[in-house]
Amino acid sequence: MPKAKPKTARKSAHDAIALLTEDHRKVKKMFKDFEKLKKGEGNDGAKAALVDRICTELTVHVQVEEEIFYPAVRAAIDDNDLMDEADVEHAGAKDLIAQLAAMKPGDDHYDAKVTVLGEYIEHHVKEEHDELFPQARKARVDTGGLGAQILQRKQELQQRGGASAPPKNASVYSRGRRKQLTDAGNDRDTGSHAGLQFAG
After folding, report:
1. Percentage of the chain with pLDDT > 90?
2. What is the distance between the alpha carbons of residues 97 and 88, in angstroms, rounded to a whole number?
3. 197 within some domain
4. Does residue 122 fall inside a structural domain?
5. Is residue 199 part of a domain?
6. How many domains does the chain have?
7. pLDDT tens digit string along 13-41?
8. Is residue 18 part of a domain?
């Protein structure tokens, strides 16, 4: 009995859903912090730093989901509509992140875009927690194995300062799906991505 506790702790620490949920919690707090900064004056430097952190966190999170988690879940569950909606929601978030990367506090609609991004992410997270994650659990997706891959990939991306090209191990990816997402994002994007490169 005593030996079961550390074993469970290790499994939880590398569980994909637990890792993604922790990302959601972290970003939610950042958006709340931004709303507090909006109410003060002379906070442009703090705003810029916080939004940079939000965009980096989301960029890495989106990429590991698209490269590792989503393909595995799509293959395991019988709900292409749900997965397609998640893909489109990611494309919309990328578009707002790219716009914010090209802006600075004080620019027209800067605060509004951060707030809308937060609302967008909140809706997306709710759908993942209410629908996608439960279906992944029910389908017995190997969340432990995926979690280990996610941890490794996140470390690679964070060392490079954000999302980048896909890893050489293409077994965790759907290259065609990534192209669809890139095309969807480009259709909506009216400006440059200001140096933020997503998978592709």
Report:
1. 68
2. 14
3. no
4. yes
5. no
6. 1
7. 689 999 999 999 999 999 999 999 988 77
8. yes
